[in-house]
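This is your field. Have a critical look at both lines of this record:
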Amino acid sequence: MFAANVLCQPWDLEDEGIDCVLDRLQGELGASGITVRASGPPVRQLRRHASVEPRVFQTLGGLYFQPDADKYGATRIKPVVADWVKSRNPLSKIADACGKRGLQFRAAVYTRRLECIVSRHPEFAVKSCFGDVSPGRMCQHNPDAAEFFRAMVADLSAYEAAVAVELCDLDQPFETDLLDAAAAENLGSAGSELFGVCFCESCLQAAGVGGVDTESAHRSAQVTLLRGFESGEPLEGNLDEHAPLQDFIRNRCDAHAAFIESIRAHAESNVALHIPADRIGSATVGVSACDAIIADIVTYESDRLLSPFDGAHFDVRREVQAKVRVPAGGDAALLIKTLNQLSDQGLDGITLDHYAEMGDAEFTAAKQAIRYARRTATA
């Protein structure tokens, strides 16, 4: 079944009226469902719609729902509910409203990027090979963190209306926020990737149990990166030619795939993996464990939009997520053209990112595009 979803921030739905927004998305736009952010990092969002306040919505992040405490008993990490949620549970109300209308409800979660939790539990953070502690990234291989993530997905997938939980930051085995854009560029693509490999105590211990010479792997990573620091030359190509380091990275990649499989086993709904536009070609670890993948597209400028899945073969449901905001001075017809081209490529669904970015022009364009997509999917 072709899905035409709209990504929504829960505060936008709540402030504009859940029923009002859902009636508009379903009745006027023709959406078959919504995807709602259920957790996330700090946010500062300028809001376009005239009737909302505050004009700039700000949150330090966390969980956007009230957790079921019983599901988190096996982890030392306690859920941190976002500051704006307080004692309410807007996500539950949104899910119930979707269920009454027959709208599909998806919950989109950030797992590793919960800075409000990492700040309280730095012992569960990602670490570089030099021992630098990430300020805002949790390592999914720490047993407490892994159990916390599984509990969060199980919590959300238990919502009666939930058809899927979307994982937004797990398409790669490693992720760090220790490098800014300039530092990553100076290190080179391979150097920045190696700097992002986690050498926390949990990763080292697990790899050691798996037979990896972790001491040699650790030292190899340091020596390789120091060579790049001292030469000033970006590190490119294959940097894991040293066998223990190669074994360590392979072991951690296998662990990542197993972790996603464990999430899938704990979910009562489908699980989808969200993949950024620039990483679709390298996102292979753990994909097969999911029910669907959702890949970003970010441009409306080419005469012929290439599918983000060109050259990448995935044996699961394939969807895309497209920015709905038309660039300044742009033509809303470009949005229609883009979504029409995506529909022609035989995809299983489109998510429009996001509701609060829809002015009148974007809303009208999206409505036409959804109608075209549905006709194409059923032709």
